[in-house]
Design brief:
This protein is α+β, with helices and mostly antiparallel strands. It has helices at about 15-25, 65-75, 85-95, and strands spanning about 5-10, 35, 40-50, 50-60, 75-85, 105-110, 115-120, 130. The two termini are about 15 Å apart. The protein binds zinc ion.
């Protein structure tokens, strides 16, 4: 698989408004866009940094994956996303290696990206997202 760069780092927050204010006040980053991904019960806010972004994730439902993450671990880094050239090839390669995947097939992410998550049990506790844009 060919990884191009770190596409974004996903940070679980209770509120994009409050989390985003900190990123702006402390780091001078600016919110570019907010997008809701209904299937994932999440609202995302993107703060671009050259080729990468910080992605703030706020749950839209009390039973959503981000709400559960915050309940278990508190706010903080939730996943790291790598931009790949071809996500279908990447998933095929990982399956051949016997790596456990959360998504067997790519699904739709924010910004029209095709994304898939690798199971954190195979990546030392780090939730890794692959994305193709
Ligand atoms: Zn992400």
């Amino acid at each position: 698989m060919k990884i191009r760069h770190i596409d974004h780092i996903g940070i679980a927050v209770k509120s994009i408004e409050e989390g985003g204010k900190s990123l702006t006040d402390i780091l001078g980053l600016k919110l570019q866009k907010i997008e809701t991904v209904a299937e994932q019960k999440v609202k995302t806010g993107f703060f671009p940094i050259t080729d990468s972004e910080l992605e703030l994730l706020e749950s839209t439902q009390p039973d959503g994956p981000i709400a559960k993450f915050i309940e278990a671990k508190g706010e903080g880094v939730q996943h790291i996303a790598f931009r790949v050239e071809n996500i279908d090839d990447a998933l095929r390669e990982l399956k051949e290696k016997g790596i456990r995947l959360i998504d067997q097939e790519p699904r739709k992410g924010a910004g029209g990206a095709r994304i898939a998550f690798i199971h954190p049990k195979d990546t030392h506790g780090v939730l890794v997202e692959l994305c193709e844009k």
